Amino acid sequence: MNNYLIPANANRGKLILGYFRGIDLAIFLIGIAITFILMMSLDISSTVMAIIALAPAIVCGFLVIPVPYYHNILVFLGELRQYYKNTRIYHWKGWCYKDGGKQ
Question: Which residues lie below 8 Å from residue 79, measured CB to CB, with a gap of 6+?
């Protein structure tokens, strides 16, 4: 038999808690720290000020949420940026290159 199947989640062993890279946790912890500083320094008696104080933690938490087919929202946004930034002109170089078009 000697069939060896690599598990689909083989790379999860390299991640912290199976989901997070070091940079993901750093982004989230910095957002939490900024939120605590804002909560201590702002008067959060109104709803608007409470939302402003909680915004860094909410935004950073949203960026590191795992999503299917990508690692997290941050990786998805990076891939999206890379797709729209790079040139998408494809030159045909297949087996029938000289059969059609300009010669």
Answer: 70
Q: What whole-number distance in Å separates Cα of residue 11 and Cα of residue 71?
A: 11
List the structure tokens of 21.
């890279």
SS3 31: helix
Is the pLDDT score of 59 beyond 80? yes
Are 27 and 74 in contact by the 8 Å Cβ rule? The answer is yes
Decide: residue 8, CB within 10 A, 0-12 exposed, 13-18 middle, 19+ buried.
exposed
The model carries a pTM of: 0.64
Which pLDDT score is estimated for 70?
A: 75
